[in-house]
Each structure stands twice: as structure tokens, then as C-alpha cells.
Amino acid sequence: MSTTFDLRNPGRPIHVGVVLLNTVTEHLDIAPIGFFHNFGKDFIENLPPFAISPELRSQALDFVTHWVTEDGKTPGSLSGNLKVIPTDSFTTCPPLDIVLIGAGQMGYQATTTEKAFLRKCYAECSAFLSVCGASDALLATDILEGKTATGPLSFLPLFRQMAPGTNWVEKRWVRDGKIWTTGTLLNGLDMIAAFGREVWGGEGSLVEHVLRTGYFPSRNVDYKDEVSEKSPRSQVVKAPTHHGNDVVSGLFQKRPKEEDDQVMQLRKLHRGLLQGHTVEEGDTCTPRDTTPNVGDAVDCELRSSRMNLNMNEAEELLLQFRQQRAYFPFIEVPEVTTAAAMAASQPFLLLAILTVSLTRKPLLQKRLDERFRRVLSERIIFYGEKSMDYVQGLLVYMAWRPLHIRPLSRQGSQFMQILVTMIIDLKLTENMHDKAARDVCVGCFSLSSLLSVGFRRRGDDGAYKYLKEAVDANKRLKQPYDEKFQLSELHVLFEEIIRCQFECSSMKCPITKKQRVEEKMESLRLELQIFERVHDVNSSMYINLSQPLCTDIPTVPLRLFILSLKVHIALLPFRILDPRSSNIPNHEHLFGQVTSCATEIRSFFEYFLSIPQDQYISFSIRDWCQLILTISASSHICFLSPAQMSPTWNDFRTRTRSSMLIYLESLSHRMSRLSVTKTGDTPDVFFMFKSVLDIVMSTYAPSSGESSSPMSMGSRGESSIGEDICRDVAAGPPTPSTRCPMVNGSIRESEFWEAMKQSDVFLEGLGNGNSQDMFTSGISGVDSLLGDCADWPSIFSEWVNVSTN
Q: Domain DJ-1/PfpI: where (predicted)?
């Protein structure tokens, strides 16, 4: 093959070959081979539309990769005990357009056959890429004679003695004609980036897009950006601490760059005015400020006692987080990463992990939660900082947000908006090659959609589109279906169920609406059955739940999601069709559907209660939402009043309500056992759940005049049935328009609320207005907003959201 072959306009597939000698080749040296795949047609054509433009897609090239050993049969050996099955031998290998060779074991001498093949490859190719110590093998072939080359810096003096006819230079990589040589190991990635830009690059090119979105290294070719061994950057990273061994107080010690004096003075002025202070005469810019600023709050002691978390405890919490992330696997912390290293490089993510992992220490969790929100307020809101650290930290916090600390706050929606905005500003949605970026996008949009649906709003169209395209792209690429994409595919199905409610509810004709609902239910159930069959979920359901959940594919969260989806599908007729309407055709068929829905709800509760209670500690917001939404579904059918009531339907309601009450009582008992809260202690999340469940259960209890025997209804006349219906509607204590304790305010009468009042100063400000905490502002009329909890809907608005009519 002529060396004049044009790699820029090949007109045919480009043959790229890795030559493996009869030694162990360094694995990292041949890593650049993957670069060609990243802009090859096989990869680019399967990318979703949002990941790449049509113009860039059209620039993809055809590559054929060859793995060449001498006999074409013996696997090539790579460091790390890896074996490569060869595709070609020295004899059968076609002429290669691009040749890549890495370093072999120290002291290995190429055989005569190997040297002859290397000379042949060099003569035929258009580019010869030698990485690290491969230069040593080339010396015996005389290929480098009279050329400029480089190699590992420590070996250059030896190479100069062995090959004085070669001009050895101290560079990361160097090109002389068609031969490219590099320094050690990862310098091969610098070289391949330079090679790609030289041959196919330029602004607006596909290669430039791949290099940027793939974050290929861009380092100084002369090692001028290299840090010496004595540089502080090369030292062991330790987390900065003060106040003894407290890890948290050492985070975010470096203050952000201050704005100019006028801006800071204006900030102080506003703070003073908002706190009700007056500006003293002669001091127009510096009002009396008795409250520390947000930055000081990050460093200050909290009022009760100081946060105290040493590095050993931080390491234990980090280990706990790695285990609980099975329930929300979109943030990965490598096993080798320590808490000390994160404190230096990912402080916000570490702070989030520590906060959400302190479930068993509610007082300390409350303090860290305040620290987290204050850091977020200063760094992200006030100074506008953005980074992957903030994105990952906020995503972790949202996924395991301690709901019990501010139960009536709707800050979750605000935080989610901040998270989505940062993701867009950092252009993470455009970087599908970066696994971390893709994972946070999928995780964020899943949560965003879930919370929207929880508030009975249609999910965000952009989030839904991204999730669907990401899942479809993974299918087309035939990539391994890990737990992240399994959960994402189920969430796409969840969105489709909710969207079906919006689409069908607008139909006017009851018969057409009923047909459409039944068709959609059948379609959704089929999709779910296919998912279960493809991923073998049914067989994995019967795992030994007494064993710790540490499998590669976490069965429990997956199964919970599937059972929850079955409930939502079965509930569709009652979300869309009004059973109280006389226009509903075939009420007997509707009764069959409500029976089916009750069966799905029972299946969910049975499985939920079979999960070992220690796993509840790891549950994410998604898992708790599934429980909340299922309780909501239970209430929906238990208090359903169709237009054509019959003894059979009344009997069903009585039986179902009794069975659901048993499940709720079992859940309440489990929450009580899980709670670590004692009298006078700060309440934890399980104590809150128990209090809410106890209130909800009171709405299920039959009234004094209501018979609990289904047979008694069947023995009475029609008039008696009508009276029972009225009593049934009135069953349970009257509530303002909802049974949700978080919305109707009844949570204030619970043990949980009393425990919050008694715990510490966190709630003192709510009662007397003396606290400097976030519950009071000092502005007349503003604090009264906090008194009406109906103005502050929460994630619990779906507990029992049907009215009592």
C-alpha cells in the first residue's frame, strides 16, 4: 500500500492495527486504539439526536480494527493479566493504514520475524504510532535512524547511547513524518489527541467534538505543566480541619472571592433591614448586624452544640453510602476514594453524603442539614458557583433528602430547579460520552419527573424526552443494561402512565374514553411484562431477603418500582373515569377493575413488608414515594362511591378497607421499631412516618354506626343500603378537604410535632420568634405564612389525596 493514502478522504474503510509482540504489552500504552471507535460509524450512527448534530454525524468514518500476533492463534498478553484474541497473523494481516504498538516487558528483544513485520508495517502504513517504551523495540529495526523521537524521560539517556543517530527530545510526544513517538503511558492519549486533530480535526469537526466531550487530555507537550515531586500538589491530600478532629467544620474554609465594597455594603444593608434593624445616623452603609452572614454561618457553631464528626466516622458514613446507593445508583464514589480526598476535591458531595447518611443520628443530621443548606445558599445562590461537585452533591441530597427535618417545606422543588439549571449551564446533557455526566442527568430528570407527578403535575417534557432517548440509545448500542438504565426505563413507563391520565381525561365521550383507557392499560401491561421477561425480574424476586443487598443489579428497588407501576396501571380507570357518573357503561366491569387494583395494592404491601427492615434505612425518595403513592391508591379505592352502589360493592369496600388497615398498622409498627427517637429526642424520619400513618389509619377506622360485617349488609333491604352508604361516606373523622396530615395541618397534633418542639432550638424559633434560624424573618406579615401549613404542600400530599365527599 502506498504511503500517499489520504486518511482525511479515505474513500474506503481505514485499517487500524495493534501489533502485539511475544511479550506482555502495557495495557495503558494501547488505550489510544479506542479513540478511533469514538468517531467511527458503528458508534456515531447509534447516538441519539440530542447527543450529536446531523452535520457531525455525517463525518463519521469506517474503521476496521486488527489485533495482530505472530501466529494469529496465540492470544496477545496485556498487563493486568489480560488476553486479547488476535484477528490476524503476521502472514494474513492486510496492509495497515494506522499502526499502534506499545511497550513490552523490560529487556525483551524482538525476534527477527517481529522486526521484519514492523518494517513491513512501517513501509505500508500512513501513520505509525509508538507509545512509551515501544521506542526500544523500534531501535532494533533502524526505523528511528535519522529521525526525531522521544520516549520515557528516564530512559532517554540510555536511548541516546544506544541510538546516537536519532534525535531524542524531551517531549510528551513528537512527530517526524508518519512516525509518532511518546513518553510514558498516558502520554499516548496526548499523542492520539494531537494525531486526531492533525488528520481530521479543526473547529466544527467531529474529531474536535469527540476530544472535547470526551475530555481528552490537553497538556503542554514540553512538560511545562508538570508538577515536580516536591510540589505541594504531589503530597498526600488531607482534609483541612479545625475545632479538633471535626471533618464538617473543615469544609469550605476558603471563602469565595468577595465582590467590590459597594456590593458587600449593600448586601449588609439589606440584611439589616430584613431583620428589622434601623440604619444609625452617620452610618448609611453599615447597619447594625447581629446575625452572622451566610459565609460565617458555614463556619460558626450551631446554637445547641458543635457538630462533631471525625475522619473515621466520615469514612464509615462513606462506606454506608456506597451500600445504600443501590437504591439510587446514579452517583458513584470509587472504592479507592477516601473521605479525606473528597474533603479536598469534592467537599459539597462529601457534605451531602454525610448529611443523608446520618439517619440513625437525627440530631447530628439536623445540624448537618442546616450546614448543607447554608453552603448551598452562599456558594450556589449568592456567588453563583457551578461545578460537577455541586451537581452531584445536590443530587445526592435530593435523592435521600431528610423529609422529617422541614416537613412542611417545599424547598425540594426549589432545589430541583437549581439542580436542573446547573446541569443545563454546565452543558452536561450534551456530554453523553462522560459517564458521570450522563448518570447525573438521568438521575436528576428521573427525580424531577417523579416529584412533578407526586404533585399531580404532568412531568417535565424535556426531562421525559432525555430519559426516553437515553434509554433508547442504550438499547440501540446494545450496551449492558445496568441498574441505572433499568430504573430509567421503568421511570419512562411511569411517565407514560401519568401522561395517559392527562390525555384520556380530556375525552368527552365516556365510551370512547373507556375504550382508550383499556387499550392503554393493555399496552402498558405488555410493556411491563416484556421488561420483566427480558431482565428476568420475576425469578430474581424470590431472593433471600435476609442477606444484605449488595448484588450488581439491586432487585429490591427494581421490584418495588415494578409493583408500584402495576398499581398505577390498575388505578387508571379510577383516575380517568368518574365512577360516580351515571354515564359509565358496565359498572360490573368497573367492579372487576377495582378488585384487580386492590390485588395489585396488596401485592405491593406484601412485598414491601417482606423487605428486611434494615434496608428501609437505605431507601431513597423514590422508594418512599412509591409507598406514599400506593397508600394514596389504597385510599382512592377504599373510599370510592360509584353511582350504582350494590351490596357486592359495599362488601368489597368494607373488606378492602379492613385489609388495608392491617397493612397500615403493620407499617406503623415497623416504623416504630426502626425509629431511634426516645422521649425528648430529636425525631427521626421513621418517627415521622409512624405519626403520619397513625393519623391516616384513623380515617380508615369504621364509624360507630357502621357494621364491619359484610354479611349484615346483604341481609338488609335497599333502603338500609342507602343509609349505610351515607354512613360510609361519613366514616372517619371529618377533615378539611384532604386526609393528608401534612396538608390539612393535623400533623401539628401528632407525637412527631411535639417531639420536634421539644428537641432543641431548631423549632424554638417557630414558637417564640427569638431564633436566628430560617423559620423567622423579622418582617411583619411574612412569618404568618409559615403558620398555615396548607400553603406548604409537601411530598406527602399524595398520602391520602382524595376528598371525603
A: 62-183
> Using CA atoms in the order 29, 31, 33, 35, what is the torsion angle rounded to 10 degrees?
-130
Residue 497: φ, ψ to 5°: -65, -45
What single-letter amino acid sits at 570? A
CA atoms within 13 A on the CB side of 696: 33
Answer whether 682's CB lies under 8 Å from 363's CB.
yes
The Cα–Cα gap between 30 and 101 comes to: 7
Residues facing residue 176 across a β-bridge: 179
Q: Residue 129 is placed in which grid cell?
A: 504510532
| Residue 425 φ then ψ, to 5° | -60, -35
List alpha helices for 128-170, DSSP H: 134-139, 156-162
Q: Which residue, 399, 317, 326, is CA-closest to 615?
A: 326
Phi, psi dihedrals of residue 79, rounded to the nearest 5°:
-60, 155
**C-alpha pair distances (Å), 607 with each of 223, 366, 436, 529, 557:** 59, 31, 32, 18, 11
Note the pLDDT tens digit of each residue in 152-163. 988 888 888 888
The mean predicted confidence, pLDDT, of the chain is 75
End-to-end CA distance of the chain: 85
* Alpha-carbon radius of gyration of the chain: 33
Length of the chain in terms of residues written:
805
pLDDT tens figures, 193-247: 999 988 998 878 888 888 888 778 878 888 887 654 444 334 444 444 444 566 7
| Residue ranges of domains in the chain, CATH in brackets | 14-214 (3.40.50.880)
Interatomic CA distance for residues 657 and 677, integer angstroms: 30
pLDDT, average across residues 483-509: 79
Tell me what pLDDT residue 503 has.
75
692-724: string of b/e by CB count within 10 Å (b at 16+)?
A: bbbbbbebbebeeebeeebeebeeeeeeebeeb
CA distances from 304 to 299, 405, 724, 772 (A): 15, 16, 55, 13
Q: What is the pLDDT of residues 748-791, one digit of tens each?
A: 677 777 776 666 544 444 334 333 333 332 333 323 323 333 33
Average pLDDT over residues 633-654: 77
Q: Give the residue ranges of DSSP H helices in 585-702.
A: 587-610, 621-638, 647-674, 685-700
SS (H, E, C) 701-716: CCCCCCCCCHHHHHCC
CA atoms within a 13 Å half-sphere pointing along the CA-CB vector of 256: 20
Using DSSP bridges, classify how beta strands 173-176 and 76-78 pair: parallel, antiparallel or unpaired: unpaired
Residue with cell 523495540: 137
Higher pLDDT, 9 or 680: 9
C-alpha torsion 173→177→178→180, nearest 10: -10
Residue 378: pLDDT over 90:
no
- Which CA distances in Å does 255 have to 265, 298, 368? 17, 10, 19
> Quick one: what percent of the chain has pLDDT higher than 90?
21
In order, the DSSP letters of 270-322 are: HHHHHTTPPPPTT-SS-----S--HHHHHHSPPSSS-----HHHHHHHHHHHH
HSE (side-chain half, CA atoms, 13 Å) at 21: 27
Give the separation between CA 353 and CA 462, rounded to whole angstroms: 28
The CA-atom distances, in angstroms, between 129 and each of 18, 51, 174, 183 are 10, 30, 10, 12
What phi and psi values does residue 702 have, to the nearest 5 degrees? -70, 150
Q: Where does the pLDDT of residue 295 fall: very low under 50, low under 70, confident under 90, or very high at 90 and above?
A: very low
Question: Which amino acid appears at position 212 of this protein?
Answer: R
Cell numbers linked to 67: 489485533
Burial class (CB in 10 A: 0-12, 13-18, 19+), 83: exposed
